[in-house]
Amino acid sequence: MSYSVKLEKIAKERAESRNIVKQILDFGVNENQKLDIIYELALNLNSNQAMKDIVDTLKKFRETINKDEEASDNEDKPKLII
Questions:
Q1: Which of 8, 13, 42, 66 could pair with 54 as two cysteines, CB 3.0-4.6 Å apart?
Q2: In a 10 Å sphere around its CB, with 0-12 CB exposed, 13-18 middle and 19+ buried, how is residue 62 labelled?
């Protein structure tokens, strides 16, 4: 595949991605829903490292409503001896 054909394919895929984002925004989602959508998409990435990096970053901004999520957040914190 030539370089120009690859560039055209990438450009087409990005245009499709922008169209999907536009449809989501046209649907009328709030900020928390946007973060949840990004989080759910990140969980479906094939790259394990990319998924972990994105999910770890998003955890700072998402509200936790699931006890399992809270437990996994607490496991990452160092244990303190009192």
A1: 42
A2: middle
